[in-house]
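Note to self: keep these together.
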Amino acid sequence: MKKKTGRMAGFSNKSYKAESTGSGVVLDGRGHIVTSYHVIAGADMVTIRMFGSETETQAKVVGFDKMSDIALLKAPQNPAMVPALLGDSSTLAPGQLVAAIGGLYDLEGSVTVGVISALSRSGLGLLDIEDFIQTDAAMGPGLSGGPLCDAKGRVIGVNTAIFGGGQGVGFAIPSSEVAKVVAELLRNGVVERGKIGVNLQALTPSLGEALHAGEEVKGAVVVETEPGSPARYAGIEPGDIITEFNGKPVDGPRELRKMVLKSPAGESAKLELLRDGKRLTVKVKIKPMKG
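Structure:
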């Protein structure tokens, strides 16, 4: 997969063309292909070439979700486009054999093999929504957007990032998240994310003491609520410590943000708060935010 972009170069009147490459996964016989958003970001043209073919065709961008780094393309139907078999990423376990497939360093059809090193990896600061499969299968430029497969050849993730220089630490978006995002892109062309309108900070020991929280308390501290936001309407105040979201414990701001972003807009969420050492429960209606 190749993207081409045109830009104006500095003070010159000349434009230049920049190309970058990545990989993708064929989803169905209608020509839908999933890849990483960063592979096609800023592209004015996306061309695809199937493995083993010299023919290039242009693909249309159906939609994308920056927060999960997923993009959906539509290419002309082609008998050579055999849909991949999606696996269930919720059944994975560390130690399972996996293979990353794609155009590693522009070497078409590269396959690297390793194991699942960890699941639900987050807190890396790579994406807004992080729930990565970590693997030691070698990854690098050109492999992004390609499949991470289990031992039976089922796609259980989409390769998206390496940590530092790689060194056996690569990450893939679980197939369960890919399937959800793709389904919404097919329906609406965009992915709606949730928002409650709070600015947060981490709960440090000194801050916890000032807010009369116990030593074992974990959560996200509300710095301010946005005017007209669901949080302000629900009565959430600066200094409140959000400890649970819909029954799930909140370890910090990043975890709460991920929970809210993945919540359906229009639904209500139950938040457990700690205010001046007293526990409160409030309901907040999730507001839509375009992702």
